[in-house]
Amino acid sequence: MCFRDKIRKLILLKRHKLHIHTVGCKANQADSVIIDSGVQAGLFEKVQNNADADIVVINTCCVTVQAERDSKKVARSILRNNPQAKIIFTGCAVSAFKDFAKDFDNRAVTVGGGKTSPLQVSQWLNSFAENSLNITEVNKYLPYFDIPDNFTDLPAMPPENRTRAFLKIQNGCTHNCTYCIVPKARGKEQSMPLHLILERVGAFKASGVKELVLTGVQLGAYGSDLENLSNFENNNTLANVLQKSAELFYPGRIRLGSIEPWSVNEELVLTVANTKNICNHLHIPLQSGDDKVLGDMKRGYNTKFYKNILEIITSASSEIAVGTDVICGFPTESETAFENSLNFIKSCGFSYLHAFSYSSRPGTMAHKLYGEGDRTTAKTRVIKMREAGDKLHLQFIKTRINKKCTVLVEDDNKGVTETFLQVEINGQKRGTLIDCMLKQDENSGSLTATPL
Ligand code: SF4
Questions:
Q1: CATH value at residue 380
Q2: For residue 287, which atom of ligand 1 is closest to its CA?
């Protein structure tokens, strides 16, 4: 078809109203931005609400039973309230469960998944619209999406009007923790080569983003698949990526996403500690503070190893805040093991703690070996663990009061510090980074940042 015919066809096509709904983690949010940026404006009008859309892409999550349910629940609610709407499921739950759309008759299909390139999903959407396909026809049209050879997804444009954004530089995980469905959903490890990362970092900077979060599915595995690249790129460590990104992104700041304990090393910690515009914040999932449970989870470390990492961090800088995740009620977690976990966590000085109930996922080793676990016990333990987490958070706040911090001003007089504290900051322009003094209101306990 010649160019003029293509233009004529585009003019005659009725634009679909498209909304993208994201469930789950930062990697999914970054993928949704890529899907969004890859759809053609001539074919799709992007709408803010599900209710106004005729095509809703749901980027699904399956990390817990609840996340999987949420992905379906939102679809049911959209279909109930919007008779025009058709659903396109993509993301992790689609990779992990091939029949994910089966309960939705002819109003939903699955396209791509967590292993595939989100840009392929946008290309698919473009073809779908360009060929005026009906959703019931898509199965015969559905192309086979495999894991791409290279990690070359490029958001044509960073998200609009954002002060803070996520850039996914790594996909996949082969660690196979026994409880985790992610390796099934996301597949092999893949890293974005440094020159492509820097291209994107430059684009995010130019768009006005002031804090860029480098994220991945197993971020610490960055570089493991890049050994064959030329000398130009052969320093494929995460620390090097972080350093180079920070240099380019200055005066904006870079934050590192969640990183597993076995990937935290001195080079990385020193890069965080010694680079002015890398946030003093690391999120290092612990998952359990009991050695037997850590072994059953096949995490590959024990509490001594984890403590040693915390010591490396503290000796590099006392300013780095460390947050963590913990799973409560893993099927082999006895009452004593839970108490061990609680006590270990209390001794770690975390700045915050995310505690989750164990959620058994079909297809994982833990599901096969240990079954569902006891939901009631898990819920009771989560409550106890969160109480401990709240105390740790308050202790951390105390160490920061009357100290300097740098706040990124977001909406509604709210902001976030480099150590990931949410603060109130009045009368400052959205999207600016401001050096402040941190104060706490004696009555409400709320944190206020006062510009210096
Ligand atoms: S490191 Fe473990 S918990 Fe993290 S994605 Fe891989 S298998 Fe899942």
A1: 3.80.30.20
A2: 3
